[in-house]
């Protein structure tokens, strides 16, 4: 692995959101990074100050600053990090697996978009069951894939596992009555949570202090309670090896 002790910064809001897969990946790879956390109570720090001064073609959150090289877009960042730290295997060990990773990243993005939109819809209670029809199909696909193998691409971790782990919790918060339906997904969550670096990160202040998946003032669906319950499982040692 290349020297990771140089200046590497991740900038994102204080919530989990699109930043958490990046945080988990950096912690998994042992990258000694700094984080610039933007608070919603002081959102002008990003919109009126840093966004204007950051000198990027596409200033957005999350972003990374790798010794002056700046990149935004969470998927682009997830693709960049393994290459930067000489872990190209996390993008797929073969050309077929690399194609599979990108395909599944697209599936995860579709899945997240539909589920995320429900959190920001004040009429969500009336449309929840109908709007979850397509994500249910996604969940069936993921569950079927995980019936054949430990991780989404095979017997080794790739960046799509980090994305899926975060996004599946958005779904579980909306449809807790379905949790037992997807037993292979449940096994995946358990195995991923027991990865030492992930387990350690989930007990860190960065994770514990997040108010939830989305800012409470903008989301019509509470995610703080689910986030706290999930954190408690880590603190109780439910996922300890």
Automatic annotation (TrEMBL):
**Cross-referenced InterPro entries, in alphabetical order?**
Glutathione-S-Trfase_C-like, Glutathione-S-Trfase_C_sf, Glutathione_S-Trfase, Glutathione_S-Trfase_N, GST_C, GST_superfamily, Thioredoxin-like_sf
Which top EC class applies here?
A: transferase
Q: Which residues form the GST C-terminal domain?
A: 94-213
Q: Name one GO biological process term.
A: glutathione metabolic process
Domain GST N-terminal, chain residue ranges per copy = 6-89
The EC code for this enzyme is 2.5.1.18
Keyword Glycoprotein included in the entry's annotation:
no
Q: Where are the transmembrane segments?
A: none
What UniProt keywords are attached to this protein's entry?
Answer: Transferase
According to the UniProt entry, its GO molecular function terms are:
glutathione transferase activity
Q: What reaction gets catalysed by this protein? A: RX + glutathione = an S-substituted glutathione + a halide anion + H(+)
Task: Tell me which Pfam families the record gives.
Answer: GST_C_3, GST_N
Does the keyword Transferase feature in the UniProt annotation? yes
Q: Which domain of life is it from?
A: Eukaryota
Query: What task does this protein carry out?
Result: Conjugation of reduced glutathione to a wide number of exogenous and endogenous hydrophobic electrophiles.
Q: Which family does it belong to?
A: Belongs to the GST superfamily. Mu family.
Entry-linked PANTHER family:
GLUTATHIONE S-TRANSFERASE, GLUTATHIONE TRANSFERASE
Name of the featured protein = glutathione transferase
